[in-house]
Amino acid sequence: MARPLGRLHPMAVSADPVELARPAAPDRAAAPVRAAGVTVTRSRSGRLWVVALALVAALVAVPVLALLWQAARGSQGLWSHMLAHVLPQAVSQTAILLAGVGVLVTVIGTSTAWLVTAYDFPGRRWLEWLLLLPLAVPTYIIAYAYLDILHPLGPVQTAIRALLGFDSPRDFRLPDIRSMTGGILLLGLVLYPYVYLTTRAMFVTQAANLVEVSRSFGVTRRGVFLRVALPLARPAIAVGVSLALMEALNDIGATEFLGIRTLTNSIYTTWVTRSDLPGAAQIALVMLAVVVALVVLERWARRSQRYWTNAQRARPLARHRLGRVAGLAALGLALVPVLLGFVFPALHLSIVAFRRVQVSGISSRLAGEALNTVILAGSVTAVVVAAGLLVAFVTRAFQSRTTAALGRIAAIGYAMPGTVVAIGILIPIAALDRSIDAAAREWFGVSTGLLLIGSGAALSYAYFVRFLTIGSGGVESGLARLPRSYDHAARCLGRGSCGTLCHVHLPLCRAALASAALLVFVDCMKELPATLLLRPLNFETLATHLYGEAARGTYEEGAIAALLIVAVGTLPAMLLARIGGKPN
């Protein structure tokens, strides 16, 4: 899914230090010590808060360190085998996929954002939030749906043959969607909202005087877009493209269904099929290097962010009213990605699911899997939001280089694909399981087996690492709206750090907490790679159920699960539609 933007993602949050004002009352929080332009509060309670933040950061860092250790201890000849037979194809396929998806999401996201921002036409207000709906469709679900829609015996090809007078697929059939081209198109159709949302937020607040000056010099509207608006929006585009590419890199279902062998699929095959954990760790290390390269590239593209954000103080851009014909053409053009990326797949899944329910009803197996999904996602959401609150509060209340560094470490999990997180977690958790089992055998004469992996604790840990940034980013966005004078007033009234958090921050940030919880819950429901690799035996979620049905080719069986995931995924899409830009 849908993943969060702006302050909900580590790459979209400014890392500039903000100086904390001196507390007014020298109560239980000790006097601040100023060093290098940053105020650090040295007290026992302050140290405990920082230690708690360090523990959270350590939990996130453990998978990365374990991955490095496992990759380093692999056999010497394994790297040569990987370099000769596995990595060339996987890296080339991944690079082609990322390049194609990057171009497609940039074109669709930027053009639609400019269209609904710079022009006024019938249906524009509806388009502003309709264009976000494809974000509710996970990548593996759109591949699953279109494999059935465009199947030689599916509705589209059957209708075309009927119109052309052909009776058999041997007489006429469309090109197979199982290809690199199909993968780029389908992933681009559901990932472009990342670019649309960040770029539209930029265009909405762009200075109108810049456009008016350009127009006064005789620049056409097309020239204004290409020579003024687009250069100013490059940092926002870079953020959205980076998010989309990391989602494409994290995908395992869509590429598997479409026959594309990416690094993610190579990790899964090496680990599960060949039982080669060191080899999978080494491929995951290469994948982690790709993620780091994406982050560095995004940072480089945003190096001039201060330039375009200063223009946001000016009055907003005035829209140009289109004529009836041009307006209808703009509406139809902008509706294409909505129809292809959301309406058609959701409609097809609804029809297939309805037919399935009519024939055999809803199986108890699916109900149990839905319950597993809700319980797992709900429990992880509670822990993630609580830990996110801790991270956001400590980095706000006790500003220093240490807390800033710990906050950045706690945010790295979201940038890691699910397969990388799963391998990094399996290594220490499996070692801990073996230690617990050995101790239980020695002390009590019983075997605990794979206690942590078998109970789902490892999977919950993977969700925690992956989605902690969403929780902390959501809370941070809420805390950023509170003036620091509130904190100082609470200190003057004798409230310590805990009292300020409980009596000031929490009541005023309930909406931000609820939004963060919703986003984390939906992302947990949709997560496929980590769930496939770390779920206990005989434990299925809606995502793994859908993956299994698609792998067997029984699309009707998985339609209900897919529809449930899409229906729940529309909630954060609607939320983002409300906060994605200023009201119009």
Automatic annotation (TrEMBL):
GO terms for biological process: transmembrane transport. Keywords: Cell membrane, Membrane, Transmembrane, Transmembrane helix, Transport. The keyword Transport applies. It holds the Pfam family BPD_transp_1. Coiled coil: none annotated. Its main location: membrane. The chain crosses the membrane at residues 48-71, 91-117, 129-147, 177-197, 224-246, 280-301, 322-354, 374-394, 406-431, 443-464, 559-579. It is a multi-pass membrane protein. It is found in: Cell membrane. GO terms for cellular component: plasma membrane. Residues 91-298, 370-576 form the ABC transmembrane type-1 domain. Belongs to the binding-protein-dependent transport system permease family. This is Iron(III) transport system permease protein. It comes from Paracoccus alkenifer. The lineage of its organism: Bacteria, Pseudomonadati, Pseudomonadota, Alphaproteobacteria, Rhodobacterales.
